[in-house]
């Protein structure tokens, strides 16, 4: 299984998915685990952070 965070145009996580295959899309970030705590966080240079 593959886990992805979907980010919007501001790099904020708007969804987390468990998929059966690899996805190649600019708005999909590959994750190590299914982690819904990322919802609402911003992805920046390989790290997740709070939106301020």
Fold topology:
Elements lengths: L1 E6 L5 E7 L8 E4 L10 E3 L2 E3 L3
Gist of the model:
The chain contains no helices and 5 strands.
Question: Could you explain how this protein is built, in words?
Answer:
This protein is an all-beta fold and about 50 residues long. It is about 0% helix and about 45% strand. The chain contains no helices and 5 strands. It has strands spanning about 1-5, 15-20, 30, 40-45, 45-50. The strands form 2 sheets. It has a 3-stranded antiparallel beta sheet with strand order 2-1-3, with no helix packed on it. Strand 4 and strand 5 (about 45-50) form a beta hairpin. It is globular.
Distance between the termini: 32 Å
What does the overall shape look like? globular
Number of strands: 5
> pLDDT under 50 segments (min length 5)?
none
Radius of gyration: 10 Å
Biggest sheet: strand arrangement: 2-1-3
Mean pLDDT: 97
User: Major beta sheet, specifics?
Assistant: 3 strands, antiparallel
- SSE pattern, N- to C-terminal: EEEEE
Fraction of residues in β-strands: 35-45%
Give the helix/strand class: mainly beta
Number of helices: 0
């Amino acid at each position: 299984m593959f886990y992805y965070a979907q980010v919007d145009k501001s790099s904020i996580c708007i969804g987390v998915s468990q998929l059966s295959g690899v996805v190649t899309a600019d708005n999909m970030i590959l994750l190590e685990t299914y982690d819904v705590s990322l919802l609402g966080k911003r992805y920046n240079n390989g790290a997740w952070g709070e939106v301020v």
